[in-house]
Design goal:
Blueprint lengths: L10 E3 L23 E4 L3 E5 L9 E5 L11 H22 L3 E5 L16 E6 L3 H8 L3 E3 L3 H17 L1
Antiparallel strand pairs: 1-7, 2-3, 3-4, 4-6, 5-6
Helix pairs in contact: 1-3
This protein binds zinc ion (ZN).
Protein backbone atom coordinates (compact mmCIF):
# COMPACT_ATOMS: atom_id res chain seq x y z
CA UNK A 1 0.00 0.00 0.00
CA UNK A 2 3.02 2.30 -0.05
CA UNK A 3 2.61 3.28 -3.68
CA UNK A 4 -0.96 4.59 -3.70
CA UNK A 5 -1.45 8.03 -5.18
CA UNK A 6 -1.19 10.96 -2.82
CA UNK A 7 0.35 14.41 -2.97
CA UNK A 8 2.13 13.91 0.34
CA UNK A 9 3.34 11.06 2.45
CA UNK A 10 0.42 9.04 3.66
CA UNK A 11 -0.70 7.57 6.88
CA UNK A 12 -4.08 6.06 7.58
CA UNK A 13 -6.58 6.40 10.33
CA UNK A 14 -9.95 4.77 10.64
CA UNK A 15 -13.03 6.89 11.03
CA UNK A 16 -14.13 7.42 14.60
CA UNK A 17 -17.63 8.25 15.75
CA UNK A 18 -18.27 11.63 17.32
CA UNK A 19 -20.55 11.28 20.35
CA UNK A 20 -24.02 12.45 19.28
CA UNK A 21 -24.63 14.30 22.52
CA UNK A 22 -21.60 16.55 22.28
CA UNK A 23 -21.45 19.37 19.76
CA UNK A 24 -17.88 19.57 18.51
CA UNK A 25 -18.65 22.88 16.77
CA UNK A 26 -19.92 24.67 19.88
CA UNK A 27 -16.70 23.82 21.72
CA UNK A 28 -14.18 23.04 18.98
CA UNK A 29 -11.19 22.69 21.29
CA UNK A 30 -12.81 20.36 23.81
CA UNK A 31 -10.95 17.13 24.42
CA UNK A 32 -8.34 17.69 21.75
CA UNK A 33 -4.59 17.65 22.04
CA UNK A 34 -4.25 19.93 19.04
CA UNK A 35 -6.06 23.13 18.13
CA UNK A 36 -7.81 22.59 14.83
CA UNK A 37 -9.10 26.17 14.50
CA UNK A 38 -7.07 28.07 11.90
CA UNK A 39 -8.97 31.36 11.87
CA UNK A 40 -11.51 33.12 14.09
CA UNK A 41 -13.88 35.82 12.88
CA UNK A 42 -16.43 37.81 14.82
CA UNK A 43 -19.35 35.37 14.47
CA UNK A 44 -17.73 32.29 12.98
CA UNK A 45 -14.47 30.41 12.56
CA UNK A 46 -12.54 28.13 10.21
CA UNK A 47 -11.50 24.69 11.46
CA UNK A 48 -9.70 21.68 10.03
CA UNK A 49 -11.75 18.54 9.58
CA UNK A 50 -10.43 15.97 12.05
CA UNK A 51 -11.07 13.25 9.48
CA UNK A 52 -10.23 15.05 6.24
CA UNK A 53 -11.44 13.77 2.91
CA UNK A 54 -8.37 15.36 1.40
CA UNK A 55 -5.39 17.37 2.48
CA UNK A 56 -6.52 20.82 3.65
CA UNK A 57 -10.19 19.88 4.21
CA UNK A 58 -11.64 22.92 6.03
CA UNK A 59 -14.99 23.83 7.52
CA UNK A 60 -16.44 27.31 8.06
CA UNK A 61 -18.66 27.26 11.14
CA UNK A 62 -20.91 29.85 12.84
CA UNK A 63 -20.33 30.24 16.57
CA UNK A 64 -24.04 29.82 17.28
CA UNK A 65 -25.58 26.36 17.44
CA UNK A 66 -28.00 26.44 14.53
CA UNK A 67 -28.88 23.92 11.87
CA UNK A 68 -30.25 25.93 8.94
CA UNK A 69 -29.30 28.82 6.70
CA UNK A 70 -32.67 30.31 7.58
CA UNK A 71 -31.56 30.83 11.20
CA UNK A 72 -28.54 32.93 10.26
CA UNK A 73 -28.50 36.66 10.95
CA UNK A 74 -27.41 38.97 8.12
CA UNK A 75 -24.06 39.54 9.87
CA UNK A 76 -23.51 35.80 10.19
CA UNK A 77 -24.40 35.24 6.53
CA UNK A 78 -21.96 37.90 5.44
CA UNK A 79 -19.12 36.59 7.55
CA UNK A 80 -19.66 32.94 6.61
CA UNK A 81 -19.28 33.85 2.96
CA UNK A 82 -16.32 36.11 3.71
CA UNK A 83 -14.55 33.27 5.55
CA UNK A 84 -15.46 30.81 2.79
CA UNK A 85 -13.80 33.17 0.32
CA UNK A 86 -10.75 33.53 2.59
CA UNK A 87 -10.59 29.74 2.86
CA UNK A 88 -10.62 29.38 -0.91
CA UNK A 89 -7.76 31.85 -1.18
CA UNK A 90 -5.76 30.21 1.63
CA UNK A 91 -6.19 26.71 0.16
CA UNK A 92 -5.19 27.87 -3.29
CA UNK A 93 -2.05 29.45 -1.87
CA UNK A 94 -1.10 26.59 0.45
CA UNK A 95 -2.03 23.53 -1.61
CA UNK A 96 -2.56 24.69 -5.18
CA UNK A 97 -5.44 22.25 -5.71
CA UNK A 98 -6.89 21.67 -9.17
CA UNK A 99 -10.36 22.35 -7.78
CA UNK A 100 -12.27 22.86 -4.52
CA UNK A 101 -15.60 21.38 -3.48
CA UNK A 102 -17.58 23.90 -1.43
CA UNK A 103 -20.71 22.50 0.13
CA UNK A 104 -23.29 22.30 2.89
CA UNK A 105 -25.20 19.20 3.93
CA UNK A 106 -28.44 20.21 5.65
CA UNK A 107 -29.83 17.31 7.66
CA UNK A 108 -28.87 13.67 8.09
CA UNK A 109 -30.63 12.57 4.91
CA UNK A 110 -28.44 14.99 3.00
CA UNK A 111 -25.31 13.46 4.48
CA UNK A 112 -24.56 15.80 7.36
CA UNK A 113 -22.21 14.19 9.87
CA UNK A 114 -22.99 16.83 12.48
CA UNK A 115 -26.57 17.70 11.56
CA UNK A 116 -27.41 20.16 14.33
CA UNK A 117 -24.65 22.70 13.78
CA UNK A 118 -24.35 24.25 10.35
CA UNK A 119 -20.95 24.07 8.63
CA UNK A 120 -19.59 24.72 5.15
CA UNK A 121 -17.07 22.21 3.81
CA UNK A 122 -14.17 23.16 1.57
CA UNK A 123 -12.38 20.13 0.12
CA UNK A 124 -9.35 20.67 -2.12
CA UNK A 125 -9.45 18.33 -5.11
CA UNK A 126 -6.91 16.87 -7.49
CA UNK A 127 -7.52 14.80 -10.58
CA UNK A 128 -7.45 11.15 -9.57
CA UNK A 129 -8.28 11.55 -5.90
CA UNK A 130 -11.78 10.15 -6.42
CA UNK A 131 -10.34 6.97 -7.85
CA UNK A 132 -8.00 6.81 -4.94
CA UNK A 133 -10.77 7.13 -2.38
CA UNK A 134 -12.88 4.51 -4.15
CA UNK A 135 -10.02 2.06 -4.01
CA UNK A 136 -9.40 2.65 -0.35
CA UNK A 137 -13.08 2.40 0.56
CA UNK A 138 -13.82 3.14 4.19
CA UNK A 139 -10.27 4.08 5.02
CA UNK A 140 -9.66 7.78 5.46
CA UNK A 141 -6.59 9.33 3.95
CA UNK A 142 -4.57 11.68 6.11
CA UNK A 143 -1.84 12.94 3.81
CA UNK A 144 -0.45 15.56 6.15
CA UNK A 145 -0.33 15.78 9.92
CA UNK A 146 -3.11 18.10 11.11
CA UNK A 147 -0.72 20.07 13.29
CA UNK A 148 1.35 20.76 10.19
CA UNK A 149 -1.75 21.68 8.20
CA UNK A 150 -2.83 24.16 10.89
CA UNK A 151 0.64 25.66 11.14
CA UNK A 152 0.75 26.08 7.37
CA UNK A 153 -2.68 27.71 7.07
CA UNK A 154 -2.83 30.03 10.11
CA UNK A 155 -0.29 32.61 8.91
CA UNK A 156 -1.84 32.61 5.44
CA UNK A 157 -5.30 33.35 6.88
CA UNK A 158 -3.83 36.08 9.10
CA UNK A 159 -2.08 37.76 6.16
CA UNK A 160 -5.06 37.47 3.79
CA UNK A 161 -7.38 38.84 6.46
CA UNK A 162 -5.04 41.77 7.10
CA UNK A 163 -4.79 42.48 3.39
ZN1 LIG B 1 -23.19 23.37 18.23
Amino acid sequence: MDRLWAPWRLSYVTAAQVPATDCIFCDPSAGRDIDLVVFRGEHSYVILNLYPYNNGHLMVVPDRHLSTLEALTPDEQTELMRLTRLSEMALNEAYKPQGINVGINLGKAAGAGIENHLHIHLVPRWSGDTNFMTAVGETRVLPEDLTATAARLRPIFARLQAG
